[in-house]
Design a protein that fits this description.
The structure holds 2 protein chains of 2 kinds.
Chain A lengths: L13 H4 L11 E6 L4 H16 L7 E7 L5 H15 L6 H8 L2 E5 L5 H18 L5 E5 L6 H10 L11 E6 L6 H12 L7 E4 L6 H11 L13 E9 L8 H26 L8 H14 L8 H4 E7 L1 E3 L2 E3 L17 E7 L9 E7 L6 E8 L17 E7 L3 E9 L7 E8 L1 H4 L7 H11 L8 H19 L5 E4 L6 H8 L9
Helix pairs in contact in A: 2-3, 2-13, 7-14, 9-10, 9-14, 10-14
Chain B lengths: L3 E8 L8 H11 L9 E2 L3 E7 L4 H11 L5 E9 L6 E14 L8 E12 L6 H5 L9 E4 L8 H10 L2 E4 L7 H14 L3 E4 H4 L2 H10 L3 H4 L5 E8 L4 H15 L2 E7 L5 E7 L2 E8 L7 E8 L2 E7 L5 E8 L2 E9 L5 H10 L5 H14 L2
Parallel strand pairs in B: 2-6, 3-4, 3-7, 4-6, 7-8, 8-9, 10-13
Antiparallel strand pairs in B: 1-5, 5-6, 10-14, 11-12, 12-13, 14-15, 15-16, 16-17
Helix pairs in contact in B: 2-10, 5-11, 9-11
């Protein structure tokens, strides 16, 4: 605390840092990136670390070590990273700052399946501890192909690198997908936990690093006007939409294996569902938030395998028009089988069997080549029990829409009297764009998550039981679809197949047009 | 996603002496688009600025630049109480920004409002009666006195009662000593909370200096500091005094003596945990208000120094001739808009600032 007189000569740096105006800076440490020659490293991780460094958010004693099979020197690796950074930020990378940053970036070529790579890495990290003061703290970031995850974890464990050196910490970061189904997710988690404790594991879904996604919690838990209405007492149903206007681009081979259910629904959409439906956490910390999210996933009613058709729709786009451009169908895309049944669109009807949400259907959908990119949660309220006006049977229900992207905000549809004689009611949309109220530059999701990782805060990372519960919900759908050829087609640029409309229409409802 | 922001300044044709109702109606009209739709108003705070005729255009520009990041109702008060004749002149403008580049975006406009009140003669001595009725309810009130202005005693009373936070700038005065003492006196009264742009400008410097001692093996060095040398430009004296005040209060140094050195430099002596500590302040920097900080312990020297281009800053740790650590980062901007923005972000008492200011006042009393 400032102002207090210190008599001890052993002062802690906290006397200077204990100040809400000064940023919290992580302890010294090294970040090892496996799969460092890949796109993720150059396009996301290094720019995020560079930004953190320039903003003085990284410790002075920090190092990045890239590991990959490609033969490269430290300098060649740095040049490659600089080239991508230059492409992203034309003319905005300052030479002096980059030179200072890249002096902490190293590269180690090696086969991640071989034990000697890890011995070499271990020796190198020890050297960095001595030369650069990284103090035995290490974060291992698995940015390589998911098929290599188990091998890398095992080799790290066997080399004794699952513990930091000399009392330091060791953390493991895993990128999605966290398995392909429940069984493989469990297998992956079990394999990792043979060497790493759950508290050391940071499963990253960059969606949670987005300010807008975090704002769902801010909206719900810092505004008392919404929360009392947020239950089966007043809510008729909920619709969650994660729509993309883009196709699969060059990722045909990947998408054939993944599909929308694995690529979007299992992680991003389930996370949005959790944040929408969860109870207020006791505290905004890792256990408080994650515990409540897991409770939601555990409460989601499992779909019986023989009834998947009633609750789930698998769609695939055919050719069509998106934003004035004619685009080809999924089966015509590069590296896609001409008879592919891969889902580019998913619609599900889910129920959350708990006190708050009993009987309220959650209609969720995600898809590619839809008319526009939008992520939103629409809470449709029950109609008023009685309306004393003529034509009251046509009164529309209130809808509260929480828009996550692109224009973050809240929109409330309310009934209002049309001016004039008589008493005609008409719905008015009230928009509150709380996101655009601030023109702050929003930090990149990776920037936020990498900083949290170095600070040791796993709140915005995903726990093992979250991934497993999410897979558990989707497993009957996955296995049912694997045995069926049935796909509902929709033209690119539409809001999905007719079967999806029917899924909602059967309950006397309809999808909103976002 | 970084969206392009297009701003449009709109000014009301009317002006002169307006009533509160006329002002509110005029502002609503400014938010009206050509197609009849109404631009949304987003406000997170009220900002009152008290300035003079000469500085007003520059201040208006700073306030406009703030409106995107800190959507607010800004009330710029150009006050001249020494005029004999009473005069009240009001002009209205709005800065409406539109986000582009978002597919499917609806292009909604967000408008921030600016009210400029020119008050001369007796009304200028009662600014609170003009500002008060125009404040948006339920939002905090920041009162900014730019360019080294201090609230006049009478003004201070009325205006301070309106404000939750007072923003001053000790950088724009000739007699920084008197000003700092005045601020310390204001701050000690506790209400409203006081902030100083020169303190806001120190945040990156304080963060960089703290980082030098963050590794556990160096923390012990904090108790062994013998000497602090600061190189600055004469106009930056208050910033430098606050910096030394911060170090002294945080590290428990007791001020013992002060000497005015050559070319208006200063030297302070403190008794520290392990003996005497000397702080030398040299106004020899030709450009940067704060150019270099060097801290010497028994074994090591720690330095934070701005580059020649000023936008970058290097930190080094040396033991004799051996370089133990080095890095270069961006220092950030010290534009008025950025510094005021940092103050607008801050709510509540800043105890570290108050302690540093109090220590600075003690140093100046030696």
């Amino acid at each position: 605390m400032a102002g207090s007189l210190q008599t001890d000569t052993q002062l802690s740096a906290d006397v200077l840092l204990d100040d809400s105006r000064l940023p919290k800076v992580p302890e010294p440490g090294a970040m090892v990136i496996f799969g460092a020659s890949g796109d993720l490293t150059a396009r996301k991780l290094i720019p995020a670390l560079y930004d953190l460094a320039t903003q003085r958010r990284l410790p002075m004693k920090f190092a990045v070590v890239g590991v990959s099979r490609t033969q490269m020197s430290h300098d060649e690796f740095r040049k490659k990273l600089r080239k991508t950074l230059n492409e992203q930020r034309a003319g905005k990378v300052r030479d002096s700052v980059w030179e200072s940053f890249c002096g902490s970036v190293f590269y180690l070529p090696g086969d991640t399946k071989k034990a000697e790579t890890y011995q070499e890495l271990k020796d190198f990290l020890k050297r960095l501890d001595g030369e650069r003061g990284t103090r035995g703290n290490r974060a291992f970031y698995l940015a390589s192909s998911p098929t290599l995850f188990p091998a890398v974890v095992e080799k790290l464990g066997e080399a004794g690198m699952n513990r930091g050196e000399n009392g330091g910490w060791a953390r493991l970061v895993i990128e999605k997908p966290f398995g392909r189904d429940l069984e493989s997710a469990k297998e992956l988690n079990t394999g990792i936990r043979r060497y790493f404790e759950e508290t050391q594991i940071y499963r990253i879904d960059h969606y949670l690093g987005k300010e807008t996604v975090q704002n769902i919690m801010a909206l719900r838990f810092s505004n008392s006007v919404f929360e009392p209405l947020w239950s089966q007492h007043y809510v008729d149903h909920v619709q969650i939409t994660v729509a993309e206007d883009i196709g699969i681009g060059t990722r045909g081979a990947f998408y054939e294996e993944a599909g929308a259910l694995r690529d979007i629904v299992q992680n991003h959409l389930m996370q949005v569902l959790c944040l929408t439906a969860m109870e207020p956490p006791v505290a905004f910390d890792s256990e408080g938030v994650r515990e409540e999210k897991v409770k939601v996933l555990k409460s989601v009613r499992r779909i019986p395998r023989d009834k998947v058709g009633e609750f789930a729709v698998r769609g695939q786009y055919t050719s069509g028009w998106v934003w004035g451009e004619e685009v080809s169908g999924y089966r015509e895309e590069k590296n896609v089988a001409p008879d592919s049944t891969t889902d580019t669109y998913v619609a599900l009807k889910l129920f959350i069997d708990n006190w708050r949400w009993a009987g309220v259907p959650f209609y969720v959908r995600a898809g590619k080549r839809l008319p526009k990119r939008v992520t939103e949660i629409a809470i449709q309220f029950k109609r008023t029990p009685h309306a004393p006006f003529a034509g009251a049977e046509n009164l529309e229900p209130n809808i509260l829409v929480v828009r996550v992207q692109p224009e973050e905000g809240v929109s409330l549809k309310i009934g209002a009297k049309v001016p004039g004689s008589g008493f005609r009611i008409r719905s008015v949309n009230m928009d509150l764009l709380y996101g655009t109220a601030f023109l702050e530059e929003v930090p990149d999701a990776y920037q936020r998550l990498l900083l949290d990782l170095m600070l040791g805060d796993p709140t915005l990372f995903i726990r093992a039981d979250e991934t497993e519960s999410a897979w558990d919900i989707l497993d009957p759908v996955i296995s049912s679809w694997a045995e069926s050829e049935k796909v509902a087609f929709y033209p690119a640029g539409s809001w999905g197949p007719a079967e999806s409309e029917e899924l909602v229409a059967r309950d006397g409802r309809e999808w909103r047009r976002p | 996603m970084a969206a392009a922001v297009i701003g449009e300044s709109r000014s009301a044709p009317e002006g002169g002496a307006m009533s509160v109702e006329q002002i509110e109606r005029g502002l609503a009209r400014l938010r009206m688009n050509e197609d009849g739709s109404l631009g949304a108003r987003a406000s997170v705070l009220n900002l009152i600025v008290v300035t003079d005729e000469e500085s007003a255009p520059e201040i208006a520009q700073v306030v406009s630049s703030l409106s995107g990041h800190y959507p607010c109702r800004a009330i710029i008060m150009i006050s001249d109480p020494d005029e004999e004749r009473s005069k009240l002149d009001v002009s209205l403008s709005a800065f409406c920004s539109l986000r582009h580049g978002i597919p499917g975006g609806t292009g909604n406009q967000i408008c921030a409002e600016q009210i400029t009140i020119h008050a001369e003669g007796p009304p200028a001595a009662h600014l609170e009666s003009l500002a008060g009725p125009l404040l948006l309810p339920d939002l905090p009130v920041f009162l900014w006195y730019p360019n080294g202005r201090m609230p006049r005693p009478a003004e201070s009373d009325g205006m301070a009662a309106l404000a939750d936070r007072l923003i001053l700038d000790s950088g724009g005065v000739d007699d920084s000593e008197a000003f700092m003492r005045g601020v310390a006196h204001l701050s000690a009264s506790g209400s409203p909370e006081v902030g100083d742009l020169q303190w806001a400008a120190l945040s990156p410097w304080r963060s960089l200096v703290a980082d030098l001692f963050a590794p556990p093996e160096r923390a012990g060095e904090l108790g062994k500091i013998k000497r602090v040398e600061v190189l600055y430009r004469p106009v930056g004296e208050s910033r430098v005094l606050l910096f030394v005040g911060w170090l002294a209060s945080a590290l428990g140094w007791r001020p013992e003596s002060a000497v005015c050195g050559e070319r208006r430099g200063r030297e302070f002596k403190f008794s520290g945990p392990s003996g005497e500590v000397t702080a030398t302040l040299s106004p020899d920097s030709p450009d940067a208000r704060l150019r270099r900080v060097r801290i010497l312990s028994e074994e090591c020297s720690y330095q934070v120094s701005r580059h020649r281009e000023l936008s970058d800053v290097s930190s080094t740790v040396m033991r004799g001739d051996e370089l133990l650590a080095e890095r270069t980062v961006q220092l950030g901007s010290f534009d008025s808009g950025v510094l005021v923005g940092e103050e607008l972000r801050y709510r509540g008492r800043d105890e570290v600032y108050e302690a540093s200011l109090q220590m600075t006042a003690e140093m100046l009393d030696l």
